[in-house]
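Internal tracking record. Fields below are filled automatically when a chain is submitted to the structure queue. Please do not edit lines marked as system-generated. If the sequence contains nonstandard residues, flag them in the REMARKS field before resubmitting.
Queue: standard
Priority: normal
Entity type: single polypeptide chain
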Amino acid sequence: MADNGQKARPEANDRGTATGEKVNVVGVRFRNAGKIYFFNPGQLELRPGNQVVVETARGVEFGIVVIGDRKVALEEIVAPLREVIRKATPEDCAKMEENKRRAKEAFAVCEKKIAEHGLPMKLIDVEFTFDAGKVLFYFTAEGRVDFRELVKDLAAVFRTRIELRQIGVRDEAKLLGGLGPCGRELCCSTWLGDFVPVSIRMAKGQNLSLNPTKISGICGRLMCCLKFEDATYKGGCPKAAGGTPPCAKGPAAEEPATDLQEVVFEEEAPSEEGF
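SYSTEM-GENERATED OUTPUT FOLLOWS
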C-alpha cells in the first residue's frame, strides 16, 4: 500500500528515444485506487493480480500488477524504467501484513503524541515502506503546522526515518473512503487513480441545480462525477431518425431554458502526494 511519491506518470527507460522503438512494461499499483506506474517485467511472466516487489524512488516496495505485459512507445515514458525485482514470495506477503499491523500501532502512538503537543492537525493514515526504512504519517490541517518536535518524538519511538505529509480534503476522502450521494462507494477510493479538474461550468452544462449541497461530494469539493458526462453534454443531443433530437420532445421542449445564476467555488488543485 505504498506509493513511490512521484508525480502521477509512468516511470520510464533512460535509453535512447528512437522514434517507433517500443519497450515491454507492466502497470503496478501500490495502494487501492492509486496511480499506476510502469515497470520493466524483465524475464518474468506477469499478469494482472500478481503481487510483485519492485525498486522505486522510495526504495523497495510491494505492489500489485494491474496492467499486464504490453509494449509502449519509448517516447511516451519518462526515464528511468526500473525493473521488477521478483514476484512476491509468501515471506514478502507476510512482511507486508506485518507492516500493516505495525501501522495500526503507529497510528495510535502518533495520535497520542499529537494530543500531547496540542497540535491542530488530524491524523488520517500511517504507512510503513516495505523495508520498514521509513514511516509516513498523512494528516490534514487548516494551515501550516510546526511539527518538528513531533517528528523528534516519533523518531525516538520507531527508530527509523519519519515523514509527515499534509494532504487535502480530496485525498482525505480517497484514503478514508465512504459512500457518495448516489449511494455507491466513492469513485476516488475504489477506481479513480487521478483527480481531474472539475468546474462549475460542467454542472451548468448538465443543467444541474447549483445548490452546493447537491453538487458537492463528502470532501466538500465539486463531485468528480461531474466530469464523467461533460463530454457527452458538450457533444450535444443526438438526432433521431426523423431529424428531431429525442431530448427535444415533450412539454419541456416548448419552454425556454432557465438562466443559471453564476456561482463561484474555490476548487482545490490536484494532489501531488502520489495517491
